[in-house]
Design a protein that fits this description.
homodimer, 434 residues, alpha/beta, Transferase, Pyrimidine Nucleoside Phosphorylase, Chain A, domain 3, Pyrimidine Nucleoside Phosphorylase, Chain A, domain 2, Aldehyde Oxidoreductase, domain 3, four-stranded mixed β-sheet, four-stranded antiparallel β-sheet, 16 helices, globular
């Protein structure tokens, strides 16, 4: 088998065989396939597409590039959640303890933020002492003890994906549904979970800008999961404006704790409860979504979710006192208020611009190797639909560095749109795929 | 400017700017643009295409990656010919001395054979002592002395093309009309010629299989040449069967000498005279094609072309006695005859299979670094349209190595098709683009 023949096949629009896909992924993993051949094939895949069968084989080959974790000695239906990424998208820190408190084991493996979207690991690491690098044994111990562990992917999980993603990033081959699907699902399948709930974001602040594209991605992801023996379903949620108020690592941790205390913003609560309820149904802990949602609300009201969060922090080496004392989280002294340029109704808060402004402040990263500042970020004061007076604060920028603040101010200057009439109420959960 | 943004533009079907194309070619030439980005862009170009403007800019950037030879101190309109490659396609050795004998200076830079098609340099080097690596000064001296020089491209001619071609070869990005056009024309423009006649082959043994594709390529090449100040025209000629009888380096040299002596096969004479006549018209040595063709025929009949060939061989260090004594050319003692499986009319001699069989014998190369055997090759005894009896010889294989012969026999077994009726006469020169 020759790499160039595989490239020619895909270039000319033919479907690749399982063996050809395996040859490609194995070559990438072993480093025997040159990057220039891999990138030519990736571009051909992006422009020519892949069938559902090819995408499933690609995912499978990527799973087999590393280990598939064996969690069979942990009793129960292990369920994870994955989001395609958004701004202020912090539901993992809420739903993992809630699902665990309701009896569903959650072995969660997450990623870091890149570009304008945040990442769960960065948020968790805002908690002093919190370790996301548990060994597999420590992870299993945490699952047995408190029903939840929240860690990063180990090097053994789908190493082909790590190499391919780095290459895609610099060769313009990121935006391909088959490649995105295989990247996401190979890592999730390798975790050893039994079921998965996906939160596919849609809108200006999401990777997929249109509902149609988001649905195509959701369908691709769900098909791969189910074909691999992982029961998978997806909801499609709006990502035009940031989710909740907080954007930035420590700020988002606080907002999550607020939700677990029974407070927090309505949109964040709605998406978190919906995702947790689906995890409960898949985990066999509730007969239907309505019953599951009620169970989740009870876990919030009783404080069981909050208590489980405290335990997770403790078991993973973090300081659980942050739950009661937010000043133990990293924070900065300086705030800058962005004001409404006119009076009226907020018709939009551009998630992409707010996300990029947050990165400019230091809360995220443009390149994988960048460090993040856990303390800085943005509080969205006025959400879409709210009435504002001219000069009223709409964004609160928490900054450490003046030059970075200036960059963030420039980015936020176009982020808020204000009109004379209140906007039509936006749907938050716009669809499901199962 | 970032390479990934250029890739994204082309991937999404946008035309690149002149600066973007220059950035790409300069980066390839300097080695600052990684191969994996170059190959992703090449695949995007292949699948998305390029406008005529982009192709011209690409050609120009490739010309400027090296030197453009200055031949202004050689008087007259300097004319070259380029063929897109065929089997038994040996016209250069005929037309260069003929055009020079008719007063047109021919500074010919040629390539080597690759795959099933041969190359002029390999044929010339079959002549003992013949040097194709003249320096630029030696080339100019030869032009001044005898009006012709036949050499290989120096490293200073379009170095970007050399790098890009090596990458295209292993990344499935060869078959793109804009990339082929820029590759061919950058080298020709850099030679410093004033005019160019192209022989674009079409058919099963050619790079372009259909007349429509060949015409598109011809139009692209002619447009680039004229836009760059090189008067360019093209003829499209059939390449379903080998041209002439001889396939293989020394065998083809003999056939060319035969044509210059007034003999040789009709198809080879027709294409050679047509191309030379066009060179004469472009070179200002004849008012029209008919007059030019008559002049070329006279140069054959008078022996002026043969005499010029002898001088070229002499000036370039070769043994001119080969003209009169073919046994001074490399040759092998062993022949194998392939016979007609049935009686009837030869309806086809597959140029691609004959070419591959010739490579199998050692006359050509599969990889750039392979050596060629000048002595081996194939004589096509029965050409399309000829009547044959069952068992009559149709191909004569000149071989050195028994194992190579077996491979060649396997390839030739399907090469000859014989029918009950004579085939419709095939057109040899199927079109022109000017």
């Amino acid at each position: 088998m020759r790499a160039v023949d595989i490239i020619l096949s895909k270039r000319d629009g033919r479907a690749l065989s399982r063996d050809e896909i395996r040859f490609f992924v194995d070559g990438v993993t072993a480093g025997t396939l040159p990057d220039y051949q891999a990138s030519a094939l990736l571009m051909a895949i992006l422009l020519r597409g892949m069938t559902a069968g090819e995408t499933a084989w690609l995912t499978d080959a990527m799973v087999h590039s590393g280990v598939r974790v064996d969690l069979r000695d942990i009793p129960g239906v292990k369920v994870d959640k994955h989001s395609t990424g958004g701004v202020g998208d912090k539901t993992s820190l809420i739903l993992a303890p809630l699902a665990a408190a309701c009896g569903v084991p959650v072995p969660m493996m997450s990623g870091r933020g890149l570009g304008h979207t945040g990442g769960t690991l960065d948020k968790l690491e805002a908690i002093p002492g919190f370790r996301v690098d548990l060994t597999l044994e420590e992870m299993k111990a945490a699952l047995a003890d408190i029903g939840c562990a929240m860690i990063g992917q180990t090097a053994q999980i789908a190493p082909a994906d790590k190499k391919l993603y780095a290459l895609r990033d610099v060769t313009g081959t990121v935006e391909s549904i088959p490649l995105i699907s295989a990247s996401i699902m190979s890592k999730k399948i390798a975790e050893g979970i039994d079921a998965l709930v996906l939160d596919v974001k849609t809108g200006s602040g999401a990777f997929m800008k249109t509902e149609a594209d988001s649905r195509r991605l959701a369908e691709s992801l769900v098909a791969i999961g189910n074909a691999s023996g992982v029961r998978t379903e997806a909801i499609i949620t709006a990502m035009d404006a940031p989710l909740g108020h907080a954007v930035g690592n420590a700020l988002e941790v606080i907002e999550c704790i607020e939700v677990l205390k029974g407070g927090g913003p309505a949109d964040l609560i709605a998406v978190s409860v919906e995702l947790t309820a689906r995890m409960l149904v898949l985990g066999g802990k509730a007969p239907d979504l309505a019953a599951a949602a009620a169970q989740v609300q009870r876990a919030i009201a009783s404080g069981a979710g909050l208590e489980r969060f405290r335990r997770i922090v403790e078991v993973q080496g973090g300081d659980p006192r942050v739950v009661d004392d937010y000043r133990r989280l990293p924070h900065v002294a300086d705030r800058h208020l962005v004001s409404a340029a006119r009076g009226g109704y907020v018709t939009g808060v551009d998630a992409s611009l707010v996300g990029r402004a947050s990165v400019a402040l230091g809360a995220g990263r443009d390149r994988v190797e960048d460090a993040v500042d856990p303390a800085v970020g943005i509080m969205v004061i006025a959400k879409p639909g709210e009435a504002v007076r001219e000069g009223a604060p709409v964004l609160e920028l928490h900054y450490r560095d003046r030059a970075r603040l200036d960059a963030a101010i420039r980015l936020t200057s176009q982020a808020i749109t204000i009109g004379d009439e209140p906007p039509a109420p936006a749907r938050l959960i716009v669809g499901e795929v199962r």
